[in-house]
Amino acid sequence: MVVRITKQGYYWPSMHREAAKTIQDCDKCKEQSAIRKVGVDGAIAVGSTRPFSYWGIHILGPLPMAPGGLQFLAITVEHSTKWVEAKTIIDKNARQVEKFVWEYVVCRFGVPQMINSKDEKYFKEGIFTDFCKGLKIKHSFSPITEHMEIMHYIEKQLVRS
C-alpha cells in the first residue's frame, strides 16, 4: 500500500504506521488478504513441513557402458524442493541402492522420513528394507513415483548425449 502511495508522488513520515493501522481496521482488506489467518474447514495437511524429508528414488538404465562398468544411474528427487541427487552405479541391486541413499541423501541432508520407490526387487530385498527399518525411514511403493517426469527427462538427455 505504501509503495502504491509513493508511486503516486505522495510521502509523509508516518505513512507506514498509518497504512498498517488502516489495513488492520479494514474488513475488505482482511477478506482479500493473501495470507489466511484461519485454517480452511476440511483442509488436510499433506506431506512434511521439513524440507528434504520425503524422497522419490529410481534406477535408470541400462545406459551405454561407461568406464569402470558403470551402466545404471541411481537418481533421487526430493518431494518439496525438487532437489535432484544422482550417481552412476554398476548394477541394479539393493547394496548399490543402500550405498547411494546413505552417501547422497542421509549423509548430505539427514535421515528422511519417507522414501518412495517403484515396486522392484532391488528395493524390496532384505538389505534395503533392513536399512530403512534401521534408520526408521518409512519406505513406500507405488507403480510410478511422483517425480517420474523429471527422471524420464534426465534419462532422455543421457541417452542423447
Automatic annotation (TrEMBL):
PROSITE patterns from the UniProt entry: INTEGRASE
Domain of life: Eukaryota
Keywords: Nucleotidyltransferase, RNA-directed DNA polymerase, Transferase
Cleaved signal peptide residues: none
InterPro entries in the cross-refs: Integrase_cat-core, Retrovirus_Pol_polyprotein, RNaseH-like_sf, RNaseH_sf
Domain Integrase catalytic: 47-142
The organism's taxonomic lineage, starting at the top: Eukaryota, Viridiplantae, Streptophyta, Embryophyta, Tracheophyta
GO molecular function: RNA-directed DNA polymerase activity
Full protein name: Reverse transcriptase domain-containing protein
